[in-house]
Amino acid sequence: MKANGTLNAEYIESESEFSALSSIIGASAAGVRVYTATSSQGLALMHEVLFASAGLRLPLVMTVTNRALSAPLSIWNDHQDSISERDSGWIQIYVETNQEAVDTHIQAFRIAENSEVLLPIMVCMDGFFLTHTVEPIDVPEKKDVEKYIPKYVPKYATLDSKNPKSIGAFVYPQFYINAKYDNDVALKNSANEIKKANKDFEKAFGRRYGNGLIEEYKNDRKITIIAMGSVCGAIRDCIDIRKDTGLLRVRTFRPFPREDILENLSDKDTVLVLDKAVSLGNAGALFTEVRDALYSAKKRPKVVGFIAGLGGKDIRVNDINSMIDRAKKMNDGDIEWVE
After folding, report:
1. Residue 210 and residue 263 in contact, taking contact as beta carbons nearer than 8 Å
2. Model-level pTM?
3. Do residues 108 and 121 make contact, with C-beta atoms less than 8 angstroms apart?
4. Could you tell me if 240 and 155 lie in one domain?
5. What is the pLDDT of residue 3?
6. Alpha carbon of residue 325 to chain centroid
7. CB under 8 Å to 215, separation ≥6 — which residues?
8. Containing domain of residue 302, as a range?
9. Does the residue 3 lie in any domain?
10. What DSSP letter does each residue of 48-76 carry, written as one string?
11. pLDDT digit string, tens, across residues 172-214
12. Which of 170, 205, 240 is the last residue of a domain?
């Protein structure tokens, strides 16, 4: 697009992912709309700069094509790379299909650049399952996208050669904690803008993804599976066969949709959480956060966890059927690995 003149942009080739993110931090601080992409070890190499970009309140947009972390070496999909960065201060949205990936990238610029948000955002899409497959999609017209996304006018363009300033400067403890508190408030408040962006996108393009934070499918049943990403397609196929199970897809992992989880799951008998990442020595991150959200429910359902799909191992309809049957026999808090 840059080469054929359809995109007015500067394309920067960097020697590493650390440098790539550092470059767009500088560009964003100068008042430019920015974008980059990474995955797996590349995202891990960005670790230090992820925290800096969120702390500086810069509206970056980054695609994360989720792939496993080594060792052992794997090039296939799981969610370990982005889940490991969940506390960096970035918004994280996990898409199910390539159509949703296209649509969410459009929404992402509007969300990140909102003056009440001003935070970086990861659009997480499953490596190989989405990135290396062909799927028919509708690409919105440029003029319609430009109507949906306001022209970018940076509220704080700090870097200016005519008026030099320092950013990310040293601060004393009493100011540091205030900055982190403001980050936390902004990240939590971004939930409202995510919902609004999703709702307005439906008005403009005819597609929506739940309420922007979660999406339910036949979730009027007593057993609910909670998952993220492309595996939800196989879960839908399984649910269409069974009559006892529904799906709650977590689309937005940060900010975590605690209220939505509590509202939609407290009346269930069993909640089955499927994680494609693991906090070694504990459990899956999605499992622990769902269980935490349900702790204050007056009537808490049984919550069980399955760790599956690591390193790209297929999760098939038969596997999901087996998990549901096993979940009925498990005790609250039990976790099983699907090998």
Report:
1. no
2. 0.97
3. yes
4. no
5. 84
6. 29
7. 209, 248, 249, 251
8. 214-337
9. no
10. HHHHHHHHTT---EEEEEE-PPSSS---S
11. 999 999 999 999 999 999 999 999 999 999 999 999 999 999 9
12. 205
